[in-house]
Amino acid sequence: MTVTMKQQPGLVETMKDRNRIFSALLEIRDGEKEMI
Q: What is the pLDDT of residues 1-36, one digit of tens each?
């Protein structure tokens, strides 16, 4: 894993963006549950 990190510096940013989108989706789902 460490080797691929050095080869692909953008991979870390992609993981951060993915986590950010995932958490945003979870927040939207929670909001919809409250509305129903």
A: 566 556 666 777 888 999 999 999 999 888 887 765
Global pTM?
0.49
Within a 10 A sphere around the Cβ of 11, how many other Cβ atoms? 13
Q: Cβ(22)–Cβ(29) under 8 Å?
A: no
Contact criterion met (CB below 8 Å) for 23 and 16: no
For 8: left if phi > 0, alpha if psi spans -120 to 50, otherwise beta; the answer is beta
